[in-house]
Amino acid sequence: MKTRIITGIVAIALFVPVCIFSDYVVFPIVMSILSAVGVYEMAKCLGMDKKWALTVPMYIVALALPIVRFYINKQSHFFAIAMIAIFFVLIYSLGYVMFRKNQDKIGDILTLYALFFYIVGCFSSIVCVRYMAYGKYVYLLVFLGAWVCDTFAYFTGRFFGKHKLIPEISPKKTIEGSIGGIVFTIGAFILYRVLLFKIFTDLKINLPYLLVIILAIAASIVSQIGDLVASAIKRQYNLKDYGKLFPGHGGVLDRFDSVMLVAPVVYVIFIISAVLM
Questions:
Q1: How does DSSP classify residue 74?
Q2: pLDDT tens across 56-97, in order?
Q3: Domain regions of the chain by residue span
Q4: In whole angstroms, what is the distance from residue 50 CA to residue 263 CA?
Q5: Is residue 253 within 8 Å of 230, Cβ to Cβ?
Q6: Which residues contact 202 (CB under 8 A, 6 or more apart)?
């Protein structure tokens, strides 16, 4: 527990300046590093981390895309570049299987590719949320949604949990904890919205309470799904942690498993709300 607390304090101390200077390239660089490390952790989980001929292009794309988003303002242009890069990795991966003459199972290669796509897409989405219109005021909701839900789901489940959620995947998670995480996330999002307009009194951004509540519910639900998906993969491959980057907390995928899935959902909801409002 002492190690977890110390690591948590150090992580917060590093995370705060990254957010403070998120107007600069430091933010996408950090997301790029997390993205590449996450892909490496997944490759290691699947037993493919030593297959450098297969994984290096994945690491390059994982490292590049979040930074590319910082320098490309138009989202349509970024999506075009991202899809070309990801499609190239798919073709390369299939070519790798062919030239290896079936020494590797195509199912394993495609599993790694799918999880590569998931990890890179999610970390790129964090950067997309940050650099969309008014993104600097709302991107913290991605982290707030995941970490508030995770924290209060844990404590609610610990004190009030009686009914297991999905014991086959995560024995300690309860239905009561899940509901508690959703409720507290809604409260945290509403509080964030109140403080945002108190601090920035001249802020002209359309952020009604209904949208905030929808974001909170969606973020808390998908954060729990992301956590469960990461746990299911670890259980299937008999892993305790994906890595050791954060002592006491595991690797990137252990620490950011819930954050990752929140980012694209928040991004899509904001795009839809912009069209409808």
A1: -
A2: 999 999 999 999 999 998 888 899 999 999 999 999 999 998
A3: 1-131, 136-277
A4: 30
A5: yes
A6: none
